[in-house]
Amino acid sequence: MKLIPETLGGRLFALILLGLLATNLTVQALSGKGAGSMHQLGVDQILRRYASDFRVLSACTQGCPRDQLMEAMEGEDFHLTLADHIALHEMDEAEAAIGQRLEQLIDTTGTARAHVLILDPASGNNRHRTPALQVSMALPQGSWLIGTLQPVVRNGWWKPLGFSLLASGLPVLIVLALFLGRLLRPLQTLANAAERLSRGERTDPLPETGPRELRELSRVFNQMQARLTRFLDDRTRMLAAISHDFRTPITSLRLRAELVEDQALAAAMKRTLEEMGQMVDETLQFARDDSSQEDTRVIDLVPLLTSIAHDMQLQGHEVRINLPAASPYRCRPLALTRAVRNLADNATRHGTCTTLKLLHDGRQLRIEVEDNGPGLPEVWLEKAFEPFSRLDHARGPHSGAAGLGLAIARTAIEAHGGRIRLANRTTGGLCASIELPA
Question: Transmembrane residues, as ranges (predicted)?
Fold first, then answer.
């Protein structure tokens, strides 16, 4: 069991409670009212009892049943004895104050003086575990009336501590509970905005409100988001401009290839130019996809994957599906569709049968695209995601695209906060797995 709460609110509660506990313990230690200290009200009450018994015994004349009276006056923690003399000692300040109080209660005329001895729990004369009083005063008959008194004490530090902690801590904790949500709300807003930013969404600037530290945190987050957005926009505009500018020289070279008399050389030149044109088209498409800001919304992934499988079946490919009844998910549908379609295109290009699966274990959602093709060498499982990597060279002699399909798929999936991996199947073929946060 964890003693330290994981949430910030829980830690604030625990910290304040520990502070109140330390404060109350310090106050009790400084005030001398810790465990085992005598309670002033208890001392005063027991002194009044001794004073009453002293006055009764003082009035007891010869023939009075003094022993029977003393026995009736005694209690469990109150004992009376008579002595002809006692050993006097110099009283300290606390003992002298108690003696003076006892003399006031008895209302002596100045002839009798009280002698007080505080018996420590460790003393041999004290059979109790708490401090006791031994009070002695001379009766008019000449003997000393010795009373051993057990005053009311604080038997445990938890009794006064519990009351003081409750009285001082409960109002503080109630006020904290009322305002803690309001205090932590900006942090929750920041966490949600950071999560959306990590999934590729652009959020409105956070309101810079609350305490100074939270305002500074919101301001820095807004600056970070603005700089990231500006960097991505500049990059995609530059990529789109460069790809667009390539169209002019490619068109010019294609016209010149028509004038080449050697037909074999002209055909080779045209094939190279076609590949270059295809690379430029895919690069332009990649730039447009990266710069577009599709809204995020909740959709059912089952119809989305079913539609992809149906389109590929219409093209003559064998595509199987293994999907649940429904699977709602918050995403950018066009980007996710493009990513899955690119993986499915690769699967149908290199295998004769493709399978689409959708799995959900509560923590993450996984889309798997399997084929029965030749698979990939281990060194290509990660290298295949690099832009312009030609999987066809690794899996066979077939002509493929420019090599941006997996790069586009990875960009789209990572923008959703997920990841994409390739793995060779033990039964043969390749499995492309998309893992998305639930």
Answer: 161-180
**Amino acid residing at 67:** D
Show the domains of the chain with their CATH numbers.
40-149 (no CATH), 200-293 (1.10.287.130), 294-437 (3.30.565.10)
Q: Are 137 and 145 in contact (CB under 8 A)?
A: yes
- Residue 185's H or E segment, with its range, is helix 158-198
* CA dihedral sign, ordered 60, 66, 69, 75: positive
Cα separation, 198 vs 195, in Å, equals 5
d(CA 437, CA 275): 37
Please write the tens of the pLDDT for every residue from 217-256. Answer: 889 989 988 888 887 777 777 777 777 777 778 888 888 8
Sign of CA dihedral 347, 353, 356, 357: negative
Q: CA-CA distance, 114 to 144, in Å (whole number)?
A: 10
Give the pLDDT confidence score for residue 308 in this predicted structure.
92
| Residue 327: CB atoms within 10 Å | 18
In angstroms, how far is the first alpha carbon of the chain from the final one? 27
pLDDT in tens, 349-400: 888 999 999 998 878 899 999 999 888 888 888 888 887 666 554 444 444 4
List C-alpha distances in Å: 66 to 69, 79, 199: 5, 14, 95
CA dist 145 and 138 (Å) reads: 6
The whole model's pTM is what? 0.49
